[in-house]
Amino acid sequence: MSEDILHRKQLETSDMTFDFTSEIYNYTLVIIEDLCVRTANKPLQDLGMPSPNRIAAVSTCIELDREQSYSTSDLLSYVQNNISKLTSEQKDIYDTIMHCVDNNVGEIFFLDVPGGTGKTFVIKLILASIRSKNDIALAIASSGIATTLLPVG
C-alpha cells in the first residue's frame, strides 16, 4: 500500500526518484487504521500495530499534495502568454481579484455573465496566477458543467 502511495506521489510530482518518507509511511498507517476501524471497530494500537500521527497526516492529504505539485514555471508561462488576451472588462476583473489575493483581502466573487464571454478563461488565468506563486487556489463552480471546465475543479 505504501508503494502505491509512493508511486502516485512520483507521478504527481513527475519525479520518479522521489523516495519513501516518514509521511508516506504515516499516511499508509492512517489508511490501514481507517479500514480497521470501519471493519473491526478497532484502532491499530488495539491490534498491536503502531498508531499513525493523524496531525502529521493532514499535511499528506492527496488534494493538498496535488495543489502543491504544479509546475510554477509552466503556470507563469501560461499567465504571461495569456494575460494580454484579456479584454478590458476581463482585465478589470482579473486585477480586482488578484489585488485582493495579493493583499490578503477576504472577498467572495461571483462571475455572473452570459455564456461565451470568457468566464472560464479569466478563472483559469486567476488560478494559474495564484498557483504560479506556490499559493493554493481552489476552483469552485455553481454548476457541474462549469466545474469540469476548471483545472482541478
TrEMBL record:
Molecular function terms, GO-annotated: 5'-3' DNA helicase activity; ATP binding; hydrolase activity
EC number per UniProt: 5.6.2.3
Domain DNA helicase Pif1-like DEAD-box helicase: 85-153
Keyword terms of this UniProt record: ATP-binding, DNA damage, DNA recombination, DNA repair, Helicase, Hydrolase, Nucleotide-binding
Superkingdom assignment: Eukaryota
Protein name per Swiss-Prot or TrEMBL: ATP-dependent DNA helicase
Xref: InterPro entries: DNA_helicase_pif1-like_DEAD, P-loop_NTPase
Species per Swiss-Prot/TrEMBL record: Artemia franciscana (Brine shrimp)
Pfam family, one: PIF1
GO biological process terms, semicolon-separated: DNA recombination; DNA repair; telomere maintenance
Family to which this protein belongs: Belongs to the helicase family.
Catalytic function, reaction form: ATP + H2O = ADP + phosphate + H(+)
Cofactor (UniProt): Mg(2+)
